Automatic annotation (TrEMBL):
It comes from Streptomyces triculaminicus. It is an enzyme of class 2 (transferase). GO terms for cellular component: membrane. This is histidine kinase. The chain crosses the membrane at residues 12-32, 67-93, 100-117, 129-146. SUPFAM superfamilies: ATPase domain of HSP90 chaperone/DNA topoisomerase II/histidine kinase.
Amino acid sequence: MHHVHRTRRDWAADIGLFLFAACFAAISSRSIPLPQDMGPGWQAADQVVGGLGCAAVFLRRRWPVQLAVALLVAGSLAHYMTGPALVAVFTVAAGRPWRVTAWVAALAFAPLPVFLYELPETDESRAGAALTYFALIAGALGWGLFRRSRRQLIDSLRERAELAEAESALRAARATQRAREEIAREMHDVLAHRLSLLSVHAGALEYNPGAPPAEIGRAAGVIRDSAHQALQDLREVIGVLRAPVGDGRPQPTLGDVARLVEEARKAGTRIDYEPPGEAETGAAPAALGRTAYRIVQEALTNARKHAPDVPVRVRISGGPGGGLGIEVRNALPDATAGGPSSAGPAIPGAGQGLIGLGERAALAGGRLEHGRDGADFRLAAWLPWPADPHREPPPAG
């Protein structure tokens, strides 16, 4: 059998139950009705057996069921085993499964039918002692069951607390992961637009060194402004991370899409822009405008990367109650007469921009689709726009 390790608390409990069994045997010795034919030798042997039963209480943790069975059987022969038997029955009820407890209880109450059958012929003192014995056994079983149910309740509450703590840590980890994803998406959207402008104009200067001075100066100015703006955007994004909740830089709105388009035009992209009406632009919720701005920004960035010499058509339409539609379309480079741009190598990309746009649209409750449409590449998005001006769609990060 495995060794049972006892803590100080376990030793204190075992010693306390041993003292209980011994004191119970000593106190009840005067009230135990002994047979008239029991001599002094049998009485001494009975007391020795009772003392051994009390000492056997220390074995209750290693062999609880075996000890209970032995003490109950010995109790039918020895008169000082009631105390140890009560401790053993209590131990089984408090720590063993229901089925085992039921078998031990059946063994303890097995003499009860015989006692009830012989009750009319039993003298009053022996009948009272027997009834007291069965009542004490029932009390020990009940107290043990109560202790077990209480311990199970405490364990259940502890398990729930640990589970709640684990779920809280998991929610915190998920929140941190979402924050990191939002940070990465925001930095991608903000910086990819600026850096693509830098790459386009730097490539033009590299492959066209003989361009007129005015064109070179204009390209250099765009490079300088884009670099400064990229650094400023980066500082603002980092500032948002360091700032308290609720602080941060102003977020783009639907009205800022026109400024974005004009900025791309100055950088050399040919854009046919069909804006929404002025009333719709002014009434657009902040989250909706921010998502629309990021979609157009990423679409123009991708157009500069993959089709820098191809005109782009941007169309935004819709209004409250009907949703906001966004369509960005450009001819595929292999479908144009001039083919790919010769201003430099293709601008590298991580391939995550369109995935990020799909996530933004889904978070806002909308949808986004993109792909080849005849000779064009088409990106189309729909975002919900509630008719109630005070109820915004879900934030898009």
